[in-house]
Every structure is written in structure tokens, then in C-alpha cells.
């Protein structure tokens, strides 16, 4: 057992429990960059570990009635076969060296999209709060909101998300939930998370089965991931009501972008320059967006009634 890998998986599990996002987007880059696991083996091990973890949270959401099963069905119609197809595409790319190179670059693209998705998610929450002049988010409506299901766009989201997940292990939480927010803006946050989590179970399972069948799985890596990530995710879920989620999501976006740059083999000097510019510019840009929506530049200057975890 690689206890260093288990410790890293524990930390990532905490982040996933806090934010509901970032499992594959963090786990796979950590395996590749810090533990020198080949990209293909990293993707397969992460998918198998996720296939074991995700059903636990899904059961909770199903019991709480926060899952739109009609949307799950349309998503899975596209995502399940596409995830297995993503594995077939990877296997058809050629010898192991070329496959690993393509996977690494595809993972970099997926990480950039995931980081951008976190920004979009935060901006949508800011715009939602701006609809109320007091700066407070409107209370969730009583009962299920009225949602007009859009079958073929939903299938298309599942198709693209499943393909990305099958090839890179990234997207079952971060990418698809952003697309759901754009397609169904009236869904409550709890329903977005619950629906995305339940549809991710067959999606991740399909991709994991494909990798197992083609012999990509590394059992020692997968075991370490499970030993660390399961208790980490449990702890993160317990902490999620106590720590500011907005701060965690911003840190997660920064880590995702840094990982993406390394996946593209960007030299350390250029990586440091890009990340430094991000640190310098991100604050002023976000403060300008807050002012444009009628909020103070700093969340600390909002009315006390707005909870710290609800500020963005």
C-alpha cells in the first residue's frame, strides 16, 4: 500500500466532499504529476475508485427526493455508451506511448474546461443573487420547480460528457453539472447536485468497466485511492456546512488550471508567469463583476444576514 498516495487521495476526498466537484479533475493529475503513474493507468484507477464512491452519495440524494430521474434517464442515454466509446477511442489511438501522450493532452483540455466551469458556476450564482436588490438569494421554492425537459440537448450533454469522462476521467461532476445549470436554470441547487451525482454512477461505471476489460487497471493504485478518498469525502461533507465554499471553489479552480498547464508540458517559468497573472488579475476582475451586479467589491461588506458560505 502506498500510504503517500492514500494521504493525497484523502486530501482530494476532502475537497470533493466540500465542493461536490473536482474528483477526477484533481485525482488524475495528482497521480500523473506527483506519483508518476502513466496517464492511462491513472484514468482507469480513478474511474474505478469513483465507481465505488459515487453510489453512496446517490443513495442519500434519492432518499431526500433531490434527484430528477427524468433528466437522469436522458443523460444516461448519451453518457453511458459514449463513456465506453471513449475507452475504445483511447485504445484505438496506437501504442502505449502515443496513447498516454494523447490522454495527457486531452486531460489538460478537460481541466481547463473544468476550471472555466467553476468560474461560470460562481458567476451564475452571483447573477442569481443580483435578482434580489437586498443581495440575498431567494429561498428555494416549495415542491419541485416546473421544469420543461429538453430531451435531445440533454442527451447531447450526456454524450459529450461521457466521451470526455471515458477518455480522461474528468467531467462527471464538474463539466456535466455546469451544462445542467445552463440548460435548466430553474432547478434547485440540491437537485442539480443530486441529479448529476446519480447520472454519474452508470456513466463512471461504464467507463470503469471499459478500462478494466482492456487491462488498464492498476489494483495497487486503485486500492490506495479508495483507502484515502472514502474517509476524506466523508470528512469533507461534514465540514461543508462550516467552511466557505466559495473560497474552496476558487482554490480548486487555481489548482485545476495549474495542473492543466503542466499537462501541456508548459515550462515552469511560463507556468509561474501565467499563474502569477491569474492571481494578480482575478481579484480586480471579480470585484468589477460584483460591482456591475450591484454588490460591494468585497463580500465582507455585505449585510450580516448573508452567510459566508453563500457569498461569491
What does this structure look like?
- The chain has 312 residues and is mainly alpha-helical.
- The chain is globular, with a radius of gyration of 19 Å.
- The chain has two domains: 3-130 and 148-265, no CATH class; 269-299.
- It has eleven helices and no strands.
- The chain is 74% helix and 0% strand.
- The model is unreliable at 305-310 (pLDDT under 50).
**How many whole angstroms does the radius of gyration measure?**
19 Å
Q: Which percent bin holds the helix content?
A: over 70%
The largest sheet is: none
Mean pLDDT: 79
Note the quaternary state here.
Answer: single chain
**Number of separate helices:** 11
The helix/strand class is mainly alpha
General shape: globular
As a percent range, the share of strand residues is under 5%
H/E series, N to C?
HHHHHHHHHHH
Low-confidence stretches: 305-310
Estimate nothing, just give the exact number of structural domains.
2
Distance between the termini: 40 Å
- Count of beta strands: 0
Amino acid at each position: 500500500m502506498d500510504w503517500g498516495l492514500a494521504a493525497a487521495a484523502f486530501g482530494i476526498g476532502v475537497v470533493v466532499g466540500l465542493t461536490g466537484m473536482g474528483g477526477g479533475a484533481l485525482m488524475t493529475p495528482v497521480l500523473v504529476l506527483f506519483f508518476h503513474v502513466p496517464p492511462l493507468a491513472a484514468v482507469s484507477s480513478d474511474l474505478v475508485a469513483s465507481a465505488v464512491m459515487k453510489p453512496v452519495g446517490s443513495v442519500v440524494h434519492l432518499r431526500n427526493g433531490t434527484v430528477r430521474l427524468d433528466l437522469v434517464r436522458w443523460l444516461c442515454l448519451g453518457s453511458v455508451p459514449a463513456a465506453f466509446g471513449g475507452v475504445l477511442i483511447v485504445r484505438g489511438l496506437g501504442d502505449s506511448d502515443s496513447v498516454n501522450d494523447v490522454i495527457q493532452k486531452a486531460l489538460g483540455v478537460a481541466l481547463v474546461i473544468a476550471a472555466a466551469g467553476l468560474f461560470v458556476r460562481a458567476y451564475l450564482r452571483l447573477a442569481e443573487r443580483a435578482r434580489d436588490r437586498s443581495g440575498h438569494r431567494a429561498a428555494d421554492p416549495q415542491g419541485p420547480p416546473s421544469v420543461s425537459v429538453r430531451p435531445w440537448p440533454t442527451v447531447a450533454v450526456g454524450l459529450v460528457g461521457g466521451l470526455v469522462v471515458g477518455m480522461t476521467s474528468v467531467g462527471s461532476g464538474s463539466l456535466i453539472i455546469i451544462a445542467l445549470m445552463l440548460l435548466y436554470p430553474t432547478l434547485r441547487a440540491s437537485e442539480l447536485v443530486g441529479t448529476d451525482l446519480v447520472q454519474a454512477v452508470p456513466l463512471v461505471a461504464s467507463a470503469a468497466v471499459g478500462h478494466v476489460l482492456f487491462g488498464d487497471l492498476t489494483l495497487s493504485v486503485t486500492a490506495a485511492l479508495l483507502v484515502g478518498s472514502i474517509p476524506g469525502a466523508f470528512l469533507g461533507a461534514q465540514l461543508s456546512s462550516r467552511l466557505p465554499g466559495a473560497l474552496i471553489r476558487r482554490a480548486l479552480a487555481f489548482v485545476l488550471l495549474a495542473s492543466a498547464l503542466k499537462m501541456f508540458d508548459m515550462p515552469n517559468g511560463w507556468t509561474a508567469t501565467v499563474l502569477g497573472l491569474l492571481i494578480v488579475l482575478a481579484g480586480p476582475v471579480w470585484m468589477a463583476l460584483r460591482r456591475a451586479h450591484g454588490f460591494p467589491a468585497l463580500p465582507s461588506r455585505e449585510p450580516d444576514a448573508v452567510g459566508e458560505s453563500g457569498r461569491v
